[in-house]
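Technical annex, item 7. During the second reporting period the consortium partners agreed on a shared format for inverse folding records so that results from different sites could be compared directly. Each record opens with the tokenized structure and is followed by the designed sequence. A conforming record, contributed by the partner at site C, is shown below for reference.
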């Protein structure tokens, strides 16, 4: 009930308050064609919408809050001919300038219809960002939004498939939909999946972003979804796909065509009987994928002989949907209700269970994001937007949902000899996590003069986190294990269970000004961020475990009586950050830009709260690092300077240099010793990193039946450690922590992306090529290398994995039939079926050879159901093999 009150509070707060960047602006000057004088009181209308403005005494007009897309402008005035301009493109955050000269009225001539200039340089871009429209996404050989992200300059992909923007850690990115965060604060991952066909425009900000954006260190990924139009439009996609690879020694069971079937459907338009007042957009997608990593059912979970069938081990079944309702109460008031939902069931490949694939856990993720938006437009130059949103994500992991399921096997059945697959047993792990967020947001925008667009706003958010992590254990009565085996959930006080709740809050406010002169454009702003984890830290770090006190006299107290002896509240944190960007047009076709900003980000809730109950054992060692609710925000100072130049109308070159100085990265503390000499570690702010590099973009807009984009990134990502747990892992392996800068795990020095599109009205083909140099790794010593005289350790990340190259391909053909448009297409990902190496054996630097286990080669063991070579074949050391997709798109 408390959560319902919080939601109502946020709605009330929002309706009295006020939207992040999801719209653009159209501006220009109207003049008399003959005299060249400015024309006042000329009407400028965006056809099919409620947007419009009238020119002022200087002939200038401004239309704010225009959603991204392509529009038709109608410019009309008494005594002058009406001019219609088609294909005026509006992008998120940017100004589209349309200067128009009107001839005097003539009886002989009707409306003058012209096309807006294609492409062209955006003079008001003061920092690096990529804008990908729905039309562009449609032409690319991509299947998921992640495929689009991977094409952007400065975006690299780590060995685990995670994204990094300009050399930062994966959790430094904030994900937004229509300006509202959908980031799961537990691990800062994208909290909900979005289908490509729902996207109107994708904005990837990799440079210094404006003050309205916060809680991110390296980048913002903002998705603007589609809304319903004035006409009905529908689309149905039916497609089938499978992996086809010749490398069956790595990817067994991928050499034959066994496709899965999927669909996507959308419908938009006006709500019946509501005219143009209410419009809707709905989209749904179902996708099943067997994956490309298979196990073989050599054994059943009870250890009996299996049927020998191949079983997919990285399968996924996904359903995602979006519903959007826009209510245009008048030209001044607009309401929008939107809900996004995704449901994903999947498994991650577990090599140990390759011969017992039915014994491993499955994973279940469900997400919901719902947003209410109210926009009040005072005039063509001022508006405010109110948002209230609710986000929920649940993540579960288990083999059987009931902890008392009789099919669970005793943990001893999982025991296996070295280099052997598990031949019996069940994974006993259970994990349950729910993240909820209530957000209220307010933004006010006003074109206070022809040169200044002022924007300010504030936002508040409350999170709720429920967490329960444990592995089942044998049931005991009076400390005697029940026979036959029955599974049981560990007690809350057990070291084998982590159970907690958290309710952190955050708030922010900002003000910024966009100053636009012909000779210079400036973005300047200031941001304030506040965060309170509402967590607790230890009173005495030498006596951390409230369930097993070490201080005398505490054993006899109840839990509630002991709390004040063990925990104290943490203080709230706040930061102020300036942002500045300037674009200096050096010519009609060239712009020099520079930007600087300070950025802060709250550490992930995983670092703040996991194991923050401090159940440190009284003997032995701890298994991982303990959370710290008193962590400070991580900080980055970012600088960039660049130059954009338009060439021959259709070509654009952009070169940008950047530098990032990152401090207060989350790391591991020095060893903390308890009263009985047990050592443990917690998260602290200590690490440092810096990133420097240059990006080069060269693209051609679509003319003469072809277009292309090429981008190259040279980047140096260095830091003390790649993960917060690095020093803890070093201590556990009796190694020294790192005291100097090393290449970070995702330091990809050279990255080249290129895509080419060739097509006509009813056909087209596109090709994407990617090349990246290898990621770093740390060489290790084995018995074999020691025999060759290599006996001392190597410095971290001093060697490089092999480079990565891939090609993706798409071809389509369209035709009209019975009033509908049919499009058949073929997509092939990893066209050449390359072995794309993402990891290697650290003793050899190769993905398919290691000296590990050499002493056992040729040996037999009755308890080892596989050969040593079979066990050392690691398919997850490679990226996805060739995948073929065939589909039919029907639009009407």
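Designed sequence (site C submission):
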């Amino acid at each position: 009930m408390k959560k319902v009150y919080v939601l109502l509070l946020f709605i009330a707060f929002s309706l009295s308050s006020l939207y992040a960047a999801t719209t653009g602006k159209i501006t220009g000057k109207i003049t008399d064609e003959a005299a060249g004088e400015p024309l006042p009181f000329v009407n400028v209308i965006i056809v099919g919408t409620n947007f419009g403005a009238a020119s002022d005494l200087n002939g200038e007009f401004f239309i704010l809050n225009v959603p991204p897309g392509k529009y038709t402008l109608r410019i009309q005035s008494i005594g002058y001919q009406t001019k219609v301009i088609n294909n005026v493109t509006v992008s998120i955050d940017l100004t589209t300038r349309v200067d128009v000269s009107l001839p005097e009225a003539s009886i002989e001539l009707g409306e003058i219809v012209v096309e807006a200039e294609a492409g062209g340089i955006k003079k008001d871009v003061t920092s690096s960002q990529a804008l990908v429209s729905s039309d562009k996404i449609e032409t690319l050989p991509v299947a998921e939004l992640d495929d689009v992200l991977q094409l952007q300059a400065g975006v690299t992909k780590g060995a685990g498939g995670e994204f990094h923007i300009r050399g930062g850690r994966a959790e430094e990115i904030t994900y937004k939909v229509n300006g509202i965060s959908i980031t799961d604060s537990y691990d800062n991952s994208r909290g909900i999946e979005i289908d490509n066909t729902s996207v109107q425009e994708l904005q990837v900000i990799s440079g210094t972003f404006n003050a309205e954006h916060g809680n991110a260190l390296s980048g913002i990924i903002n998705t603007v979804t589609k809304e319903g139009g004035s006409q009905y439009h529908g689309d149905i996609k039916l497609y089938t796909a499978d992996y086809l690879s010749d490398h069956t020694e790595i990817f067994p069971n991928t050499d034959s065509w066994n496709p899965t079937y999927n669909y996507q459907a959308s419908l938009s338009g006006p709500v019946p009987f509501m005219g143009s007042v209410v419009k809707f957009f709905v989209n749904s997608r179902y996708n099943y994928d067997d994956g490309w990593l298979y196990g073989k059912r050599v054994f059943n979970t009870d250890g009996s002989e299996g049927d020998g069938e191949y079983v997919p081990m990285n399968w996924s079944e996904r359903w995602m949907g979006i519903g959007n309702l826009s209510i245009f109460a008048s030209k001044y008031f607009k309401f929008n209700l939107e809900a996004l939902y995704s449901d994903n069931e999947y498994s991650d490949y577990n090599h140990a269970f390759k011969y017992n694939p039915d014994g491993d856990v499955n994973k279940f993720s469900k997400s919901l994001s719902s947003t209410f938006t109210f926009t009040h437009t005072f005039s063509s130059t001022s508006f405010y937007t109110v948002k209230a949103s609710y986000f929920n994500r649940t993540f579960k992991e288990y083999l059987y949902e009931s902890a008392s399921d009789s099919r669970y096997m005793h943990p001893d059945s999982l025991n296996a000899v070295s280099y052997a697959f598990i031949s019996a047993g069940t994974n006993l792990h259970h994990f349950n996590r729910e993240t909820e967020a209530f957000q209220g947001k307010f933004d006010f925008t006003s074109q206070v003069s022809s040169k200044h667009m002022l924007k300010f706003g504030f936002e508040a958010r409350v999170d709720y986190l429920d967490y329960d992590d444990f592995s089942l254990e044998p049931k005991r009565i009076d400390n005697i294990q029940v026979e036959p085996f029955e599974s049981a959930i560990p007690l809350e006080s057990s070291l084998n269970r982590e159970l907690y709740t958290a309710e952190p809050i955050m708030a922010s406010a900002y003000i910024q000004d966009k100053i636009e002169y012909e000779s210079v454009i400036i973005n300047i702003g200031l941001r304030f961020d506040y965060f309170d984890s509402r967590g607790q830290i230890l009173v005495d770090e030498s006596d951390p475990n409230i369930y097993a006190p070490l201080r005398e006299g505490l054993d006899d107290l109840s839990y509630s009586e002991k709390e004040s002896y063990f925990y104290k509240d943490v203080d709230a944190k706040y930061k102020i950050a300036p942002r500045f960007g300037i674009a200096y047009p050096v010519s009609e076709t060239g712009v020099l830009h520079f930007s600087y900003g300070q950025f802060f980000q709250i550490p992930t809730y995983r670092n703040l709260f996991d194991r923050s109950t401090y159940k440190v054992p009284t003997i032995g060692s701890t298994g991982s690092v303990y959370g710290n609710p008193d962590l400070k925000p991580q900080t980055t100072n970012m600088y960039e300077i660049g130059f954009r130049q338009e060439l021959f109308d259709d070509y654009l070159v952009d070169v940008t240099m950047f530098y990032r100085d990152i401090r207060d990265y989350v790391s591991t503390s020095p060893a903390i010793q308890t009263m009985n000499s047990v050592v443990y570690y917690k998260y602290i702010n200590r690490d440092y990193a810096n990133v420097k590099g240059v990006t080069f973009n060269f693209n051609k807009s679509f003319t003469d039946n072809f277009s292309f984009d090429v981008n190259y990134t040279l980047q140096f990502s260095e830091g003390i450690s790649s993960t917060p747990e690095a020093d803890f892992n070093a201590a556990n392996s009796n190694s020294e922590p790192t005291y100097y800068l090393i290449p970070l795990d995702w330091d990809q020095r050279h990255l080249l992306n290129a895509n080419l599109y060739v097509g006509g009205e009813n056909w087209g083909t596109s090709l994407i090529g990617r090349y990246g140099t290898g990621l770093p790794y740390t060489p290790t010593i084995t018995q074999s290398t020691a025999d060759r005289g290599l006996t001392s350790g190597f410095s971290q990340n001093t060697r490089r994995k092999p480079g990565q190259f891939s090609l993706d391909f798409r071809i389509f053909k369209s035709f009209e039939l019975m009033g509908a448009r049919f499009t058949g297409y073929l997509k092939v990902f990893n066209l050449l079926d390359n072995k794309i190496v993402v990891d290697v054996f650290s003793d050899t630097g190769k993905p398919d050879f290691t000296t590990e286990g050499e002493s056992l080669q040729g040996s037999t063991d009755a308890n080892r159901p596989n050969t040593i070579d079979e066990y050392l074949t690691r398919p997850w050391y490679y990226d996805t093999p060739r995948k073929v997709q065939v589909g039919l798109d029907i639009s009407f």
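The chain is about 5% helix and 50% strand. Confidence is low (pLDDT under 50) at residues 1-20. All partners now use this format for quarterly exchanges.
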